[in-house]
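Researcher: Dear colleague, please comment on this protein.
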Amino acid sequence: MGWTDAAYSALTEAEEMGYDTAFTGTVADADLINVVTTYIDRGFNLILLASATFGPIIDASDIPAENPDVIFVGYASTSVPVNPNVIFFEFLREEGSFCVGALFTKLTQTNMVGSVGGIDYPVVVRSHEAFQAGVHWAVQGNWDTANPTVEVKTLYCGSWIDPAAGKISAQTLIQEGADCLVGQCDSSTIGVIDAAEEAGDVIISYNDYVGGFAIAPEIIVSTVAIRSDIMARMILENMEAGTIRGGLWRPALASGVVELAINPVWEDILTTEQKDYIEYVKNAIMDGDVEVPYVFEKSGVPPADF
């Protein structure tokens, strides 16, 4: 669960489009330059940098300027790239998280919902705040004041790769009364799911990829997924057309790159009213009738240029 899975999905789409691909698993920041240089020497002209730290490392190096015909794509970066052949994707998961918050107001039985993050990284903080805003908006029609009906709590477990830490945070929220939880902590989310399964009456949504439903289909209602296949096609089609350009790209629900996906198992569990409601919220966001709080100042970057 995480950016590596998203990048691998993008590579799969590229292969289906007829491109040659290669994949390197775990790469330390200190080894990144050597790995990227090797790919360039092998003739690859599109390199996905599947970590929030990788994009800025490459952008600050001499590699982009020395290789102007190679496109470098960074994930979840919180800065604007300097080089014209560097793209940073900052996915507006806030829109999906807002929808989940609204949906949870229709599902909670205890009137308390919660979210577990990994580390309070800016883009993660924004997703959790948008989730909270969705809860507030669903009941009272605005998101800038506390919801008097449904309480929202957020904890950060301190790690992206520690399921035990994720589980402890989830158990704390469950003990305090939360019966609907969001997990946004990469593999630590496995611990959030474990805690929910043990509790027996807790519903989960998570931020990752659609394939994760199989982990616990009976309790995972939805995911705010990054459709890296659509992202890859967008990049490659722009490259083929000669219209590719660097900069900060912020795809949202309307682009299809960010998707609120309902678990197929839950399609038969949710009521028609509940399913209609989530479609109403999604359409209201995409049509501009609902303004999701993106909290740009928390990431220190200006509004999107794409």
Q: What stands out?
A: Residues 93-225+258-298 form a domain with the Rossmann fold fold (CATH 3.40.50.2300).
